[in-house]
Amino acid sequence: MNTYLSQSNPVTARWESEDHLRDPKFQLDAFRYRTSRLLQSVAARLQKHTKTLGSFGAWNRCLNHLLTLAESHIESVILAKFIEAVQNCPDASSQAALKLLCDLYALDRIWKDIGTYRNVDYVAPNKAKAINKLTQYLSFQVRNIAGEFIDAFDLPPYILRAPIAMQSEAYSQYTQLVGF
């Protein structure tokens, strides 16, 4: 059995401190746990459907589940590489900015798939709320340095023409209205 499946700990499921939620180990373990659960589930489904539909039919029947598994695996690899890049960043200021983005990516993905974690008590309700609250806070933090990222990544103007990137009066009124 995969080691990530046996890590549903009732104590850590409730930890909600910012240090814990921003810990790369927690984030990567959560991503890998999700991938392990999906792998176990898709294997069981394929085995079940192969008996009646054959291999090809079972594969087609489970295709959405297989695509979700593939996406989960890719996200785990991306997060692992992102964490590695943050840790190897030589400039402290850049490292802090990248850590902020990395944490936002990880927590946002965990939050978007919170049902998976909640259904198996990997994340308790209080921790789910803390993840959502911290994700919103980190989004606000990233907003403050978004211009620096645009410059650093040399994003072309056509990408910046998205309504959220425009500095029009309507956008300013909207952001004031929603509290930014």
From TrEMBL:
Keywords noted in UniProt: Oxidoreductase
Write out the GO cellular component annotations: peroxisome
InterPro entries, sorted: Acyl-CoA_oxidase, Acyl-CoA_oxidase_C, AcylCo_DH-like_C
Top EC class for this record: oxidoreductase
Name of the molecule in the record: acyl-CoA oxidase
Highest rank taxon of the organism? Eukaryota
Any one Gene Ontology biological process term?
lipid homeostasis
Q: Pfam families annotated for this entry?
A: ACOX
Q: Which organism is it from?
A: Gossypium gossypioides (Mexican cotton)
